[in-house]
């Protein structure tokens, strides 16, 4: 679908899982988007960015904490408002200084739209999920400056939904198999294959209806029990169903918060706390649903763009079982925060 005019999209974090999907779908519409990847100087010439450059992406090395340098890149050195510029952050919150610098640069360059690094599950702004609180703090900075924005959440990744098969035949295909069912496993949760995220993002960022709004995009809504049942049916294997109680989830959050407070240099309890909080918000409270998103003020991308069709969790599971799709994420990113997460022993 053609836009009224062409946008230049500046994306930070293009080498991440979300960023890759967004860039892929932007490149499918060269008539609508020019794409600029903001890359760390030490990474700008690596294989990934070299490949992007060959596909037509302009790769610009820059320190994402250098506001002046970012402004110069986004504005092109002009004093006029960069009204055709869209800035998208796909950085993790371990790069919070860079996230805030990018916001400041967008403010100074007077961009047409800034898309902060949300791209996760829906939940209330504060008091449930510490990561969400940090993201809301960034959004507060955006709103105080009246910077045009769109914040996009995509539910829980399909890559985090499938349990391990007892045969072990998919151990190399699923990087983060689900360990247990929370409670009765009867809480619905919105799910998206991360490789599909860009299909919605390219529509959302060029749509005036989504300006200064929250938008939820997703491919499916399922409970954990439904996912287990489906994967058993497709795989032909009987999958164990260990459970974890609500209290155990709450205790895990408290324990890991205390451990991290004692040693802030140890990322493992910080990451484990975050994952336990995600279990709490989506599998205990049930925040991550289209209904709750609407209550919280989100627009629903499936209603805005009914012609966009992306994978359901069953579609994704079939691809994993057939070898067409791998649930391997963060490959080659040994410094990613989730690499510090505790791993289960399946022996």
From TrEMBL:
Gene Ontology molecular function: any one: oxidoreductase activity
Pfam family, one: NmrA
Keywords, sorted A to Z: NADP, Oxidoreductase
Transferase found in the keyword field: no
Residue ranges of every copy of the NmrA-like domain listed in the record: 7-317
Protein name according to UniProt: NmrA-like domain-containing protein
